[in-house]
Amino acid sequence: MTLSPFLFIVLAPEGVWRARFLLEPGRRYGPDDVRVEWGTEVLGCAHTLTVEATALPSEDEFRVLAARAATRTADDTPDLFRRLLNLLIPL
To answer: Is this prediction's pTM over 0.90?
Structure first.
């Protein structure tokens, strides 16, 4: 099984929330799978999804968003249309 690095970022004037994943194809991620990093720098990796916001969400809201984005990105369905939608609408 190939693990794929994925970084989810929410960027707001007061700081940055980050969550790093090694995605497993087809896995469903939940809020408990999210390790939250806080900072002021935006760091990237090969597959990064950055959301710009007017204010940072709460940590619980961030965990839900990050888990949803990771699940949709890890979706390994053979349906190319569904995979395209997951990439275009990651949340």
So the answer is: no
